[in-house]
Design a protein that fits this description.
The protein is α+β, with helices and mostly antiparallel strands. It has eight helices and 20 strands. Strand 10 (170-174) and strand 11 (177-181) form a beta hairpin.
Length: 363
């Protein structure tokens, strides 16, 4: 039975450990804080099929099927069945791309249909679409269910160093011990690049900080809401996203931008992070009058983007150590966890996930 350590218990680390456990590996998950407390924090993420890279669309289609399998196996709803709405001039291209994937049905929305599905939105008469099988991922439900399933594998400790040994095994030094494994998978978010770099693997992450704010529905209603992406620019911003909390009484809203971080991890210009939050509030006042414009919650998280695109993702692996990096990864967690498990057990990165493939490349 192969011994595999997964460093990090965000959604990608938990998904990887779950996939490894299902394949019979002896898994240890090392995490210094509460599972899901880093880049996986918050109560919702968007599941969407539309991406510029058709190869990534294919992976996300597979991921959606795995989310359904997880729901059956774990006994909890993980992706709300309310769809994903997109507005803006990119709608036609997204529909054309998704038309190649029968398992990812999508269709245009009329103005009236848009108003019915997204009553919190201001008046809008432009391109709009519905990704039928998209929807809000219940992040806490997903992290909670996986944490419960992996309870015996979780170890609360921080990792200082990873080292290859002469006998082919891999040593992990934590705050309270030294442990040896057949393979180590680095899913440590912003800490991945440093741990991999110490072993000679350069992961070209651009580190930044992002903020999203949560707003309450003004009418107190709890009818279902889809997720929302605004690329129209009609309301003063483009690249906006929003995801409802479970119960749909709150909507988390974020702009696509992020603030650069120093190599050591500090936010380079803190005033810009505050300004990003202020712009989000201003957008809500203009575009989402169905929400109270006073934020009731903030989520600040790190961005670990790759050079080839905002949806870029890659797996680096050599001599018993595998690392993963990318941005906007939550929706891909089941399929990415499978790819990382395959890499750990075979020492081969599946072709599409190798950095040379630049999966998730911008158009």
């Amino acid at each position: 039975m192969p011994r595999v350590a997964v460093v990090g218990a965000g959604i990608i680390g938990l998904s990887t450990a779950f996939a490894l456990q299902r394949r019979g590996a002896q898994v240890t998950v090392l995490e210094s804080g509460p599972p899901g407390g880093g880049q996986s924090a918050g109560q919702g993420r968007i599941f969407r099929h539309a991406h510029a890279d058709p190869r990534l669309v294919a992976q996300v289609v597979r991921s959606r099927a795995l989310w359904r399998e997880w729901e059956d196996e774990l006994g909890v709803e993980l992706v709300a069945p309310d769809g994903a709405v997109v507005i803006g001039d990119g709608v036609a291209d997204k529909l054309a791309t998704l038309a190649q994937f029968p398992d990812a049905p999508a269709r245009p929305l009329t103005r009236d249909e848009l108003r019915e599905r997204l009553p919190v939105l201001a008046a809008y008469d432009g391109p709009a679409m519905l990704d039928v099988h998209g929807g809000a991922i219940g992040t806490r439900a997903a992290v909670g269910a996986l944490t419960a399933r992996l309870a015996d594998a979780l170890v609360a400790d921080h990792v200082l160093a990873v080292r290859r040994r002469d006998d082919g095994s891999v040593e992990v030094r934590t705050g309270t011990g030294v442990h040896v494994y057949d393979h180590v998978v680095l899913c440590a978010g912003r800490g991945t690049a440093a741990l991999a770099g110490a072993l000679g693997t350069q992961v070209p992450v651009e580190l930044g900080a992002h903020v999203r704010l949560t707003f309450e529905r003004a009418d107190g209603a709890d009818g279902p809401l889809p997720t929302f992406q605004d690329g129209s620019g009609r309301f003063g911003e483009s690249g906006v996203y929003a995801s409802p909390y479970p119960g749909s009484r709150h909507l988390a809203v974020g702009l696509s931008g992020h603030v650069p971080a120093e190599p050591g991890g500090a936010v380079a210009r803190p005033d810009e992070l505050a300004a990003l939050a202020d712009r989000t509030v201003a957008y809500v006042r203009r575009a989402l009058p169905g929400l109270r414009p006073e934020p009731v919650d903030h989520v600040h998280c790190w961005v670990t983007a790759l050079p080839w695109g905002d949806d870029g993702v890659g797996i680096w692996s050599a001599d018993g150590v595998t690392a993963v990096a990318g941005h906007n990864l939550f929706k891909q967690a089941p399929v990415l966890g499978e790819a990382l498990a395959t890499t750990a057990l075979t020492d081969e990165v599946p072709a599409d996930w190798h950095p040379r493939a630049e999966l998730g490349r911008d158009a």
